[in-house]
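Notes from the 1:1 (GR / supervisor)

We went over the backlog. Supervisor wanted to see one worked example end to end before approving the batch request, so GR pasted a single chain during the call. The sequence is below; no edits were made to it. Supervisor asked that the structure be written out right there so they could see what the output format looks like.
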Amino acid sequence: MKITEDSIKAGINIIWTKEGIIDEKSETIAKNAGVTFVMNESPKKSFRKLNWIIRNI
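Structure output shown during the call:
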């Protein structure tokens, strides 16, 4: 939760937690501050999926 609050104060506009990290309190804090919060998701896997989708449209 402290990392979320510090990130918001620093002007970060997206917070992404790795797989296995669930913090609904931080998600609420971020969303209330207008910050995008991605939880329990691997950026590497997500970008890989997105690249596949873009290439196959």
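Supervisor's comment: The chain has a mean pLDDT of 90.
Batch request approved.
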